[in-house]
Write a structure and sequence with these properties.
about 25% helix, elongated, Thiol Ester Dehydrase, Chain A, alpha+beta
């Protein structure tokens, strides 16, 4: 029964299903986001910047940076197999991403309880911080993996 498993045990037992859930996310596939790492409360992904992802200044569009940050946020807060949805995000853009670059985002869980969880996300390119995001998730009662 689910009551007998900790969230960490659910993550381990259903890791493949959880990973596939996010690897097959339609919008991430459309953009070309690649999930590199998924652990309990953390996620890392990257994206190669293409011409259609640039703004009129020739740098990476903020929506692309946000999409990558939001993707790792979603993966991290759902990494326990329990359905979680975003409540709030605050993004600070600090540097421009460039055409042809690869950007990477890392989400780290800072605090979690039964109903909410809070994350810090970094978006980087070539070791430079492009953006930081703080994000709050609401944790539902339901699971998206076939828990017993």
């Amino acid at each position: 029964m689910i009551k007998d498993l900790t969230e960490q045990e659910i993550h381990q037992k259903y890791y493949n299903e959880i990973y596939q859930h996010f690897e097959q996310e339609p919008y991430a596939q459309f953009l070309g986001i690649k999930l590199l790492e998924l652990k309990e409360g953390t996620a890392m992904a990257e994206l190669e910047i293409k011409d259609h992802m640039l703004n009129t200044h020739g740098t990476v569009h903020g929506a692309i940076i946000f999409a990558l940050a939001d993707y790792v946020f979603a993966a991290a807060c759902n990494s326990y197999g329990k359905t979680a949805v975003g409540l709030n995000t605050v993004v600070n853009f600090m540097a421009a991403g460039m055409k042809g670059s690869r950007i990477k985002a890392i989400a780290v869980e800072e605090k979690k309880n039964n109903r909410t969880s809070w994350y810090k996300i970094r978006v980087e390119s070539n070791g430079e911080l492009l953006a930081s995001m703080e994000a709050l998730a609401y944790r539902k009662n339901s699971y998206f993996v076939p828990v017993e």
